Amino acid sequence: MSPVAIPLEDLVPEYIKHFTAYIPSKPDDELKKLYGCDQLYRLNNNENPLGPPAAARPIIEHFLAPGAAIYPSGDAYHLRQALGKKFGLDPDQFLVGNGANEVIAFVIKAFCQEGDNIVTADKTFAVYEWIAEFSGFAARLTPLLDFAFDAEAMLDAIDKRTKILFICNPNNPTGTYWNREQLTNFMDRVDGRQIVVIDEAYCEFVEKEDFPDGMELLRRYPNLVVFRTFSKMYALAGLRIGYLAGSLEIVDIIRRTCVVYSVNTLAQSAALKALNDDQHIIRTRNHIRQEKARILPLLNKLGLEYQSGEGCFIMIKLPMSDTLAYRKLMTKGIMIRSMTGFRFPNWIRVSIGTTEAMTAFAQALTELVGTDNKHLI
Ligand SMILES: *Cc1c(COP(=O)(O)O)cnc(C)c1O
């Protein structure tokens, strides 16, 4: 008996037909074979090269097998208590998800219906745009202005069907940020008409005095939603845990779209310990600062344009195609993010890795752009 033909033409929504799946990178062993390199430095995902905070390590190392048989807390109870205490908010103002990626979907599902749209920048973290589009909602994208979110353009893009505005602060990949005044001006002009999401995935890396703390602004702006993650500064990317915070009223709505049990037990307990390890933040900031101070002079010597702002990454413009550069760097065991997909053709984004990885990157980059100076760093 031959299998029946599935009428995909009728079954699949138009917006899914036109959407292309994101293809993640292959595992290290496969990539090493493919590119013929025997070690691989991953500088593509903005992971913390120092690894998880000391306070969280015993939890990860001593997770006991019987615990795997038991469902986790369905609403990350203890972690939300700790978040409430840390930020002086009600624990019910937090929703924890399977990475901040999952909470993006919670918010879009909670507020958008057919015909609605979201507004964000064209060159930012692409997941806001992707989730909106594969859920059937338009993403209205405004160009960056001097590598930063353009408040005027975003306000102009709002129409009657706009439900959510997404701002990445500081922005991945450009590292630019809105200061307190820029952010509060924007919030005042939105005047509660839409939900404003501030994605603070990299806020723990920022040392600037005028950087706004979204958590503080929640009291003043009940339409504000703040995203944070344990993947970047807290180095728990492999455990998948992030969260959002908002007013009780807004979070009560968003909670209706949460998938219960999506955050595993180990992630919850490791995050609980990581949250108050301030030493880890200091060590990581020092490392990032030192490595940036080594790599930026090299970029200057090589005459390369770059964007180095807040966060654990830099963006570099190359005199060649970024996809070609990706392949060439891979043969030298360096994985970077090519930026054509972020609408920055010829640019690459490089995460600040270990000192060893950054030295290897410096060497490979120097060879790539073809100068004779072999020992610039
Ligand atoms: C990495 C990242 C996230 C999401 O991280 P999760 O691992 O899903 O928690 C969200 N926003 C930005 C801007 C990021 O760079």
In short:
The chain has 15 helices and 13 strands. The chain is α/β, with parallel strands linked by helices and 377 residues long. The protein has 2 domains: 9-51 and 278-376, Aspartate Aminotransferase, domain 1 (Alpha-Beta Complex), CATH 3.90.1150.10; 57-274, Type I PLP-dependent aspartate aminotransferase-like (Major domain) (Aspartate Aminotransferase, domain 2), CATH 3.40.640.
Features:
377 residues; alpha/beta; Aspartate Aminotransferase, domain 1; Aspartate Aminotransferase, domain 2; 2 domains; 7-stranded mixed sheet; 4-stranded antiparallel sheet; 13 strands; globular; binds pyridoxal-5'-phosphate
Q: CATH homologous superfamily name of the largest domain?
A: Type I PLP-dependent aspartate aminotransferase-like (Major domain)
Proportion of strand residues = 5-15%
Terminal CA distance: 67 Å
Please state the second-level CATH architecture of the largest domain: 3-Layer(aba) Sandwich
Under CATH, the topology of the largest domain can be stated as: Aspartate Aminotransferase, domain 2
Largest sheet: 7 strands, mixed
How large is the count of helical segments? Answer: 15
Task: State Rg.
Answer: 22 Å
Structural class: alpha/beta
Please, could you describe this protein's structure?
The structure is a single chain. 41% of the residues are buried. By secondary structure, this protein is of the alpha/beta class. The mean pLDDT is 96. The termini are far apart. The strands form three sheets. A seven-stranded mixed beta sheet has the order 2-8-7-6-5-3-4, sandwiched between helices. A four-stranded antiparallel beta sheet has the order 9-10-13-12. The protein is built from 15 helices and 13 strands. Helix 6 crosses helix 7 (127-134). It has two domains: 9-51 and 278-376, Aspartate Aminotransferase, domain 1, CATH 3.90.1150; 57-274, Aspartate Aminotransferase, domain 2 (3-Layer(aba) Sandwich), CATH 3.40.640. The structure holds pyridoxal-5'-phosphate (PLP). Residues 46, 99-101, 125, 168, 172, 199, 201, 229, 231-232, 237, 242 line the site of pyridoxal-5'-phosphate.
